[in-house]
Amino acid sequence: MTPTFTPRPSQQQILRYNGGRLGIAAVPGAGKTHILSALAAKLIQEGRLGDDQEVLIVTLVNSAVDNFETRIKRFFDNPIQVLYKYRVRTLHGLAHDIVREKPTSVGLDERFSIIDEREAGFIRREAVNAWLASHSLDDYLDPALDNSKRDWVKRQQLPDLLDSIALAFIRSSKDRLLTPEKLRQQLDASFAPLPLAELGYSIYADYQRALAYRGAVDFDDLIRLALTLLESDDEFRERLQYRYPFILEDEAQDSSQTQERILSLLSGDSPPLPLLGEGLGVRAIGCAWVTRTKLSLKHLRRHRLNSCVPSSAKTRAWTCPSRGGRSLRCWRWRII
Fold it and tell me: Per-residue pLDDT for 166 more than 60?
């Protein structure tokens, strides 16, 4: 470690990590990013990596990627020492790396393109407008509306509402690895009519056809296809497991079900465990978010950054000195 970084006692325990699963819990501002950067640098400095291995750090947003890059390099006098020894990615960036290596294995052309959210929104809106042009929702409108208000609702509010429903439906379907074909099978097998699901399916199918026509995928497709590739290609998965012997995940409380499965597979769990905290080397999580699931803590070492102290056992709020003593409520707080 560089002389400018003097770890606190609780941080020193994290820096003694030498394998297995470790969970780090703290409120925002407690120093999770810095201690993960220090841990990555320490693993590199100790020669824990082979010539063709890297520490993989997965974080939430692109700005955090740059932050990690800057912090890790500061632990080395010569930047050449750390060259090709670590990789910082958002989930989308990691999924892109995985799919780019073997695109034909998941039905993509070698030169497939990725559409951004703006273009995805444009394509989705076209599918929504096409659905509205062939379906009527007049029965769902208040009969007391006058003609001008009714026209405004149909022209503006209904398309906006359907677009938001379609966005949530498509993302949820892809997170569950449900293609339009698989979804159609499930709807056909349903014992009761599901009109809202039929609406979502119709727009989803049109949206995917438009992507296929362009030879493109969206960000959610990248994640879905990366998971499919890891699950179906044992040799490729084992190669990536060797490449990334240490996996550090930042902002784990915001990870999706698919992200958890991807990182679980990369860490070598077989079968992959769908629960948070069961599939990686180190996870850092803030505690001011609502949890989605109860977790099994078996075989998991837990650690709390001691820069945050309980302000009241009754309210379960936590005070972080680095945030001016401001209390952050922590509902169903978890260590993972």
Answer: yes
Q: Are residues 92 and 238 in the same domain?
A: yes
pTM: 0.75
123 found inside a domain:
yes
Kindly state whether residues 64 and 16 are assigned to the same domain: yes
Residue 4 lies in a domain: no
In a domain, 3, yes or no: no
Nearest C-alpha neighbor of 255 from the set 100, 16, 59, 22? 59
- What is the distance, to the nearest Å, from the Cα of residue 279 to the centroid of all Cα atoms in its chain? 14
Long-range contacts of 242-245 (CB under 8 A, 24+ apart): 242/53, 243/52, 243/53, 243/54, 244/53, 244/54, 244/55, 244/56, 244/87, 245/48, 245/49, 245/53, 245/55
The rounded distance, in Å, linking the Cα atoms of 167 and 52 is 40
Instruction: Name the residue type at position 184.
Output: R
- The total domain count for the chain is 2
Q: From CA 283, how far away is CA 211, in angstroms rounded?
A: 35
- CATH number for position 304: 3.40.50.300
In a shared domain, residues 75 and 28 = yes
* 286 has a pLDDT exceeding 60: no
- Which range marks the domain in which residue 90 is found? 9-102+226-329
Q: Chain-centre distance of CA 292, in angstroms?
A: 14
* pLDDT number for residue 285: 55
- Of the CA atoms within 13 Å of residue 126, those in its CB half-sphere come to 12
Residues 97 and 42 in one domain: yes
Cβ atoms of 214 and 111 within 8 Å: the answer is: no
pLDDT tens, residue by residue, 96-154: 999 999 999 999 999 999 999 999 999 999 999 999 999 988 888 888 888 888 888 88
pLDDT 10s digits, 19-61? 777 777 777 777 888 888 999 999 998 888 888 999 999 988 8
